[in-house]
Specification:
three-stranded antiparallel β-sheet
Amino acid sequence: TGGKPALPHGGTFTANPVTMRAGLASMRTLTKESFAHLDRLGASLRDGVAASFEKHGLAGQCVGLGSLFKVHFTSHPVTDYRSIYPGQAERKKFDAFHKGLLGRGVLSASYGLFALSTPMTQDDAHAILHAIDETLGDVAAQS
């Protein structure tokens, strides 16, 4: 066809053979079994985080699906972006939570998002949950 492309697109990884190879390897690795494994790990961690909030008497919840979950320092329902926007007190808790996890060897996004990956085992999930539980205990003690 002639003329301008309907949707111009460019980027650092566009048509990069290394990126294409990594994408192909990922597609081959992500089987029904690997997705089921991630679903089980995610559900286990979400349930464990919810129990930890309750154990430490903190207002909070853990939401997500599959390999993703996010921690919220709020007791009201999480329904849209406005309902999760943290106030000053919640931001302080997120900061303490993030730093506490880093000190325990767990990396999450500073705003409480976690992403699991296929190499993770149930032992890894237990270690993450242990670090989260200890950290939520610290956050509760500071509140």
